[in-house]
Design a protein that fits this description.
single chain; Alkaline Phosphatase, subunit A; Alpha-Beta Plaits; 2 domains; six-stranded mixed β-sheet; 14 strands
Length: about 425
């Protein structure tokens, strides 16, 4: 049976998607705010390939409603990282136009080579699913549930039936911190470590030598099935780790089990025979639906290398890449230096990406939310995200655009004839 909460969410997003795709009762595109930019009837020429790279958590300044999410008005993930380090060496992002979007120490606000904008999220939330879904045309008007006091007893009882043992933890926590705290007890008892955060997540941590990966994944899959409204968290995350007390570390074998997305632009691409190539956790975010192929990655560099491989081998389609290290390794851990180093590494590999772009290609750099490592706590931050679009059109500062779905609209207009 579908709950009232599920119906409300689905009704909102399906209405948005109808507007997106142009049903008889709605406009074909959503309203947007663009400084000095008017939408014209002239359609841009079709592209062969579009690659969109998500700097996971790469926010560029607090949204006006940041206080509603517990965030200070000065949160700014990329800007504060640069400020904390004195400066960042980002010559390629500077040339594209990052400096036009926010104050980044070391990055001059030069005339952008790309088309750049600050995207303002309209959905209610500041998490991975909400941000990525909005990119592809899904507005989350009813926020997913969160658990600042831990999960209710009925959820714990059902999860215990799945695992055979009551979980340890059951509270909001940093993943690395709770593994360090409870890892030894887990190894001794085999009880899974369960934790959440300010986001709508149900995270299950287990040592790979205590709980086989296949078992952890099965627990996570079954937990996904049991977590229905009102406990319909947007992601169940399997968090395997290895090592000994005092030296535990998480492995790249993480798996995300997301709630099934409503209709979105990936479905539209698939229906029109446009291939979608997912890199990193993109496939998990959309439950694998309308994904032509997917590759898992170990870190940001591996994700970029696999994206370069796709540009070397595929002739057409949409390449969709998530760079998760920014969020999981540096943002949540409040590692300013690590975040800055990762940005500089990303910047250094951009020329290789641009060298592989053909005249009929386009590249979009964006983010899904913020995770300011200079902010208190360990949670995401509610921020504007960058939009940097390198294609055949001349560079320009588009100002502020309402809606992360501008990314998906751009992709669809570039790849779909007569949309």
């Amino acid at each position: 049976m579908v709950s009232a909460a599920d119906s409300a969410i689905r009704g909102t997003v399906e209405t948005l998607f109808r507007r997106w795709t142009g049903s008889p009762t709605h406009n074909a595109t959503l309203p947007r705010k663009e400084a000095g930019i008017q939408k014209t009837a002239k359609r841009p020429r079709l592209m062969k390939r579009v690659v969109a790279i998500v700097i996971d958590s790469g926010g560029i300044g607090a949204l006006p409603d940041a206080a509603d999410y517990g965030d200070a008005p000065d949160v700014n993930t990329i800007g504060n990282v640069a400020r904390g380090l004195g400066r960042l060496e980002l010559p390629n992002l500077a040339r594209l136009g990052l400096g036009a979007l926010t104050d980044v120490a070391g990055v001059a606000p030069d005339q952008p080579v790309a088309r750049v904008a600050r995207l303002r999220e309209r959905s209610r939330g500041k998490d991975t699913i909400t941000g990525h879904w909005e990119m592809m045309g899904v507005l989350t008007d009813v926020p997913f549930p969160t658990y600042p006091e831990g999960f209710p007893q009925e959820v714990i009882d059902e999860f215990t039936r799945i695992t055979g043992k009551p979980p340890l933890g059951n509270r909001p926590a940093s993943g690395t911190a709770i593994i360090e705290e409870l890892g030894a007890a887990h190894v001794q008892t085999g009880r899974p470590i369960l934790y959440t955060s300010a986001d709508s997540v149900f995270q299950i941590a287990a040592h790979e030598h205590v709980v086989p990966l296949s078992t952890l994944y099965e627990w996570s899959r079954r937990a996904r099935e049991m977590l229905r409204a009102p406990n319909n968290v947007n992601r169940v995350i399997a968090r395997p780790f290895v090592g000994k007390p005092g030296a535990f570390e998480r492995t790249p074998n993480r798996r995300d089990y997301a709630i099934e997305p409503p209709p979105n632009v990936l479905d539209e691409l698939n229906a029109r025979d446009v291939a979608v190539y997912a890199v990193g956790k993109i496939s998990d975010i959309y439950c694998g639906r309308s994904i032509t192929s997917s590759v898992r990655v170990t870190d940001n560099r591996d994700a970029m290398e696999k994206t370069l491989d796709l540009l070397d081998t595929v002739e057409s389609g949409f390449i969709f890449t998530n760079l998760n290290d920014f969020d999981s390794k540096y943002g949540h851990r409040r590692d300013v230096r690590g975040y800055g180093h990762a940005l500089e590494e990303f910047d250094a590999i951009l020329p290789q990406m641009q060298a592989r772009l053909r005249p009929e290609d386009a590249m979009i750099l964006t983010a899904d939310h913020g995770c300011d490592p200079t902010a208190p706590g360990s949670d995401h931050t509610r921020e504007y995200v960058p939009y940097i679009h390198l294609g055949p059109a001349p560079g320009a500062d588009l100002g502020e655009i309402e809606g992360l779905d501008y990314v998906g609209r751009t992709v669809a207009e570039a790849l779909l004839p007569c949309r």
